[in-house]
Write a structure and sequence with these properties.
Largest sheet: 6 strands, antiparallel
Shape: elongated
Strand content: 5-15%
Radius of gyration: 26 Å
Structural class: alpha+beta
Helix content: 40-55%
Strand order of the largest sheet: 1-5-2-3-4-6
């Protein structure tokens, strides 16, 4: 049975660095699931530290990481994967049993792989996420936990470096070719660099080349740039960047999808609130101090005076997402009518102040506002 969603939102509103700091400060245990188009990353935290990370992209699988970085040969990886499939065991423990890697090597490489899968997330400028309270999967050889604050800082460094790389390789339709002879270049090449060089044919774009190589996209770009700087590879054609086909997911779609999964898992069915009903409600910010970022403008208007339908502007989709995020965090409430109407109705009925439940939502607590 799937755990209930505790917290959800969009990366454009809440960047990955904020999510990691939140997990660290609140000592969270559970799974942070991030989706972009058809891709998903699932990061598991234990008391605020990252203990596991999974991607549904085969290019980012643990076995691919081991092969690209020279820890295992392709033949050993195929043999280990076949044995793991037959026995239903994890790849790491199988590699130890087959004598390909030591237990300590598996533990170290698992930790490095988790870090790469996680930090590539900082390159995502779009996507939706949710956090659910669930225990991380049991591993025969668990990796050492990673500090969430360190990941937030390292992710910021990756993003800065990624922007510098993009000054030379500005988009994914750049085509690379081998410099000079087609023979294996002399000098020291890292295993990943050698894999990239072997897949370059003068026709593949960066996107196609990464598809042939796999692994962390950031590591791939950094290695490709290094090969160009050292004149092992040349830029053959810049071309013109094609329109990205990455589909921006709707947070509503994400929540519906999660609800359907929970229903299929046997949890109690819930009925979604129609948007037409939601629009009649009056949002009220109840957490005191407003955020200082771009969300402030919308939340400042959630003062208990205006119905949601009248609050939503040109950025309707993003504002609805902000509404759901704030409600999930318990910092925003929805009233059935404006505060003035609630007070007027209570005055007509001569209702005592202690029975006016909405006053308990206001910064003044039970006293509220007159």
């Amino acid at each position: 049975m799937l755990a209930a969603v505790e917290f959800s939102g969009r990366l454009a509103s809440i960047p990955a660095s904020d999510l990691f700091q939140w997990a660290k400060n609140d000592r969270r245990t559970g799974a942070l699931v991030v989706r972009r188009s058809s891709r998903e990353k699932r990061l598991y935290f234990q008391d605020g530290q990252l203990v596991a990370a999974f991607s549904d992209n085969p290019a980012e699988f643990y076995g691919q990481y081991l092969m690209l970085n020279g820890y295992v040969s392709e033949a050993d990886l195929v043999r280990a994967l076949a044995f793991a499939a037959e026995t239903g065991r994890r790849l790491g423990s199988v590699l130890v049993e087959l004598g390909v890697l030591s237990t300590e090597s598996v533990r170290t490489t698992l930790r490095d792989h988790i870090q790469d899968v996680t930090l590539d997330l900082f390159l995502w400028d779009r996507g939706v996420f949710f956090f659910e309270a669930s225990e991380p999967p049991q591993e025969a050889i668990p990796a050492e936990p990673l500090d969430s604050l360190f990941l937030a800082m390292e992710g910021a460094r990756w993003l800065d470096e990624y922007r510098r790389i993009r000054q030379v390789l500005p988009h994914n339709d750049v085509i690379l070719r081998r410099h000079g002879t087609a023979e294996v270049p002399s000098g020291d090449l890292a295993p990943l660099e050698l894999w990239i060089w072997s897949k370059v044919n003068g026709r593949r774009t960066l996107a196609q080349l990464h598809g042939a190589v796999g692994g962390s996209f950031f590591r791939f770009l950094a290695a490709a740039l290094s090969l160009c700087v050292r004149e092992v590879l040349d830029i053959a054609d810049m071309q013109q960047a094609r329109q990205s086909s990455t589909r921006e997911l709707s947070l509503a779609d994400l929540l519906v999808d999660e609800a359907q999964q929970r229903d299929s898992g046997g949890e109690e069915e819930t009925t979604p609130v129609p948007l037409s009903t939601l629009e009649k409600m009056v949002p009220l910010w109840i957490a005191g101090r407003l955020p200082s970022d771009q969300r402030r403008s919308f939340y400042a208007r959630c003062d208990g005076t205006t119905r949601l339908k009248e609050l939503l502007g040109a950025n309707r989709k993003a504002e609805l997402d902000q509404l759901f995020v704030a409600m999930g965090r318990g910092v925003l409430a929805l009233l059935p009518a404006p505060l003035s109407q609630l007070e007027a109705a209570a005055d007509r009925q001569k209702a005592p102040a202690e029975t006016r439940w909405w006053r308990r939502l206001l910064p003044g607590g039970a006293e509220g506002k007159s």
